[in-house]
Specification:
The protein contains 3 helices and 9 strands; from the N terminus they run ααβαββββββββ. It is α+β, with helices and mostly antiparallel strands. The chain has 2 domains: 40 residues, no CATH class; 195 residues, Lipocalin, CATH 2.40.128. It has a 9-stranded antiparallel β-sheet with strand order 4-3-2-1-9-8-7-6-5, with no helix packed on it. It is globular, with a radius of gyration of 23 Å. The N terminus and C terminus are likely disordered.
Length: 317
């Protein structure tokens, strides 16, 4: 079965949400007796995404003991007691097991501009090409007039790569033998850097995070990422990039509590020369927890018909 493109994935999601899902790729046979109810779902698939026969026989493989569900607590206080608590949890900072161990929750240092320590806007001094400088100038002027146009995250679209690495909110990093996972609290987005030797597709289907493949040089994770959609920007002022951008990164632990990411952006359409910045992240306190982030629950900045970002509620309301 061919891999679905991002457009196909969006179509599937929209169809499911509308209650009209009836994909021939998933349903191997038509419904035997249509009910006549508008929006009826197609029959359950008989093959999985890889083309294998669906196996729902629970007698296969290892078994677990039978559990009496009637004895499970039906209130939160009781449910909380079903898991053992480590009395030392949250009291001691995580100690890396090696210099390649980036495990933990990390807090960005240096603000939300692309260049650490510099606010979003013209102070970034981005080496833009003339065409993309015009785009940036227009975004900055629109913001000055009170009608900003340069930040698609105001409409609850993902920040994408490489902007995710600015980490407006904390991030959690986990390291496994074949990949490094970066989970951002902001938008609850996930990026994976694969270290299993897989090839990078030279003609990828563009997505918000593209593809990231890395390898270790000593204790430094060296990553190459590309294949990003064009509509994302580098930061909130509308600092643009193109779909030809490549992000070359080097991650390392400066000390047990400091993670750094040197990012070099190469973009033949948007940048006149390579642009390198180094992001710094500090380890969060031992008892720190990531919070849920559902943009649509409290979106105060919908996009107007003319493309500018609105503010339907002021700060403090």
């Amino acid at each position: 079965m061919p891999r679905p493109t991002s457009a196909h994935r969006l179509s599937l999601a929209a169809a499911i949400a509308a209650g009209l899902f009836a994909s021939a790729a998933l349903a191997q046979a038509p419904a035997t007796k249509p009910s006549g109810i508008k929006g009826e779902f197609a029959p359950a698939p008989t093959q999985d995404r890889s083309g294998r026969k669906v196996d729902l026989d629970l007698s296969h493989g290892a078994q677990i003991p039978v559990r009496d569900a009637s004895k499970l607590p039906a209130d939160f206080a009781g449910a909380a007691k079903t898991q053992a608590v480590d009395p030392n949890w949250g009291k001691t900072a995580y100690k890396p097991k090696s210099r390649r161990d980036f495990t933990g929750i990390w807090l960005n240092e240096g603000g939300i501009g692309w260049t650490p320590g510099v606010a979003p806007g013209v102070g970034q001094h981005a080496p833009l090409t003339p065409a993309y400088q015009k785009i940036f100038d227009a975004n900055v002027e629109n913001a000055r007039q009170g009608k900003p146009t340069g930040d698609i995250t105001a409409n609850c679209l993902p920040q994408g790569m490489p902007r995710i690495m600015t980490m407006t909110y904390p991030m959690e990093v986990t390291v496994t033998p074949d990949h490094v996972t970066i989970y951002a609290e902001w938008m609850e987005q996930t990026r994976r850097i694969f270290t299993d030797g897989r090839p990078l597709d030279p003609d990828p289907d563009p997505t918000f995070y593209g593809q990231s493949v890395g390898h270790w040089e000593g204790d430094v994770l060296v990553s190459t990422a590309f294949g990003f959609v064009e509509q994302t920007d580098l930061e909130a002022s509308g600092l643009p990039k193109s779909d030809k951008m490549i992000a070359y990164e080097r991650f390392w632990l400066a000390d047990d509590d400091t993670l750094r990411d040197e990012i070099t952006l190469v973009d033949p359409k948007a940048l006149a020369k390579p642009w390198t910045v180094t992001k710094t992240y500090k380890r969060a306190p031992a008892d720190f927890k990531l919070m849920p982030y559902v943009c649509l629950e409290n979106n105060r900045n919908p996009i107007a018909a003319d493309g500018h970002i609105q503010a339907i509620l002021k700060s403090g309301n």
